[in-house]
Amino acid sequence: MVKAVGVRFRQAGKIYHFDPDSLDLKRGSKVIVETSRGIEYGEVVTVDMIESDKDKQPLKKVIREADANDTAKMEENREKEKAAIRTCKDLINKHELDMKLISCEYTLDNSKMLFYFTAEGRVDFRELVKDLASVFHTRIELRQVGVRDETKILGGYGSCGRPLCCHSYLSDFAPVSIKMAKKQNLSLNTAKISGVCGRLMCCLKNEEEAYEELNKLLPSTGDFVTTPDNLKGVVSAVNILKQRVKVIVELPNDEKEVRDYAASEIKFKSRKKAKQSENDKEIKELRELEHKDKRERSALDD
């Protein structure tokens, strides 16, 4: 086990571990570290003991704790980035490139600039890079990102009215599938379970474990059950959170009636219903979103 500090370089960004060496660092400390991109300014978000891996290179050491000059330099870079975005957009228009510029980042020592963009396909930006290098006199990197990364960078508000999870606290994008929406008994309407980015909402993952646990105690719609008043029936609907079940029961006079029971009161043998047809329009749309998620890889923290 070795002592390490987890450092984050942007809000809700990926956490990277560094060796604090002899520095007394705490959560919230601002530090200067060397990364594959150059010298960067980051914030300590964790102080932990982690497993040492002999097969991997040792952790890079924190160069020093940031001082007032470093913070001032960081603020200055933020202002320069705004001007750089305007310049880059002008050059994109000049070269008539089919790409959308998202953001720009300077390393602390200004040895490198990164421009993030989205595009439908591959973009030949070689001439653009030459022009940017001649304007800014530093190394230039253009990085194409997906729509989820675009939303993570730009931020916004979800249908819940709160700031987007990916922009406010999610470090990584967890795989999200249609199965999660089904388990939570949500409408499989693409518009209702898609986020601002147009992909399946990240928050479907948040309560997946809780719903899996609750679903274990419930029959499925269509299952045959025996009620506490010794009637036979078929489950017509379930309320997962309230653990209630609506059952169409057969009465002695051959009539049928819908009755509501607590899940713990009924006896049942689970009979999983056949999968819905893949030709269903809504399912097909959701499958496409799911496949796009798998194809897109986050490029923000590579």
Task: Please describe the topology of this protein.
Blueprint: E1 2-8, E2 15-18, E3 30-35, E4 38-50, E5 64-65, H1 68-95, E6 100-106, E7 112-118, H2 126-136, E8 139-144, H3 147-154, H4 165-168, H5 178-183, H6 190-193, H7 208-215, E9 224-226, E10 232-239, E11 244-250, E12 256-262, E13 267-268, H8 281-295
Parallel strand pairs: 7-8
Antiparallel strand pairs: 1-2, 1-4, 3-4, 3-5, 6-7, 9-10, 9-13, 10-11, 11-12
Helix pairs in contact: 1-2
Strand order of the largest sheet: 2-1-4-3-5
Number of strands: 13
Based on helices, strands and strand pairing, what is the structural class?
A: alpha+beta
Question: Considering DSSP H and I runs of 4 or more, what fraction of the residues is helical?
Answer: 25-40%
SSE order, as H and E?
EEEEEHEEHEHHHHHEEEEEH
Oligomer: single chain
Q: Using only CA atoms, what is the Rg?
A: 27 Å
Report the β-strand fraction as a percent range: 25-35%
The helix count comes to 8
Average pLDDT taken over every residue: 87
Given as residue ranges, the uncertain stretches (5+ residues, pLDDT < 50) are 273-279
Tell me, briefly, the overall form.
Answer: elongated
The main sheet comes to: 5 strands, antiparallel
- State the end-to-end CA separation: 26 Å
